[in-house]
Amino acid sequence: MCGQTEKIAKMSLSIRSATSADLSLIAQFVRDLAEYERLAHEVRFDEAVLGDRLFGPRPYAEVLIGEIDGAPQGFALFFHNFSTFEGRPGIYLEDLFVRPEARGSGLGKALLKRLAALAVERDCARLEWSVLDWNEPAIRFYKSLGAKPMDEWTIYRADGAALIDLAKGG
Predict the structure, then answer these.
(1) How far apart are CA 106 and CA 91, in angstroms?
(2) Buried b (16+ CB within 10 A) or exposed e, 108-122
(3) Is 142 noted as a catalytic residue in this protein?
(4) Exposed, middle or buried by CB within 10 Å (0-12, 13-18, 19+), for 145?
(5) Which of 36, 60, 92, 142 is catalytic?
């Protein structure tokens, strides 16, 4: 156990903003996350379109890359939302993923810490995200950081045909 602690203590963790050169890496992280969440069958993005949406003239989201000893081991994809009650923006964390071999290194916490710092720097009222109900390790991790579940809220989604029908007045 002591050897593991020493190994982790000697690691160099760093967080950086992604660039367009990271597109293939981001796409792989998304696929890896989907596999972990048992949702690989739902991954449908086109990498070039994803790149445009992240790094084009009107970026819809931002990405942080987490590295251990200079090697990318995780990412956080996020975007701004807005609280009308607060009258201020927030940050919504869409995806957080750390490769299995890097879990326990502190990288997930470092990514969330950087997001929290960005939220404070940008005068955001909050940092929010969702977690799958079955993901007990993630739930324990988030609670250990002081995050709390919003049990009184239920997420609704319109996508695919339902979204198109709604747009047409359905």
Answers:
(1) 21
(2) bebbbebbeebbeee
(3) yes
(4) exposed
(5) 142
Block residue for tokens 């994803």: 50
CB 137 within 8 A of CB 129: no
Taken as a whole, the chain contains a residue count of: 170
Q: In this predicted model, what pLDDT tens digit does every residue of 119-168 receive, in sequence order?
A: 999 999 999 999 999 999 999 999 999 999 999 998 898 989 999 999 99
**What domains can you pick out in the chain, each with its CATH number?**
2-167 (3.40.630.30)
Partners of 78 in the beta sheet? 62, 93
Pairing of strands 88-98, 71-83: antiparallel
* Residues 15/66, Cβ–Cβ less than 8 Å: yes
Q: List 14's β-bridge partners, or say none.
A: 67
Identity (one letter) of the amino acid at 21? Answer: A
Contacts of 155 (CB under 8 A, 6+ apart): 130
Confirm whether pTM is higher than 0.85: yes
- Nearest of 63, 59, 60, 85 to residue 75 by alpha carbon: 63
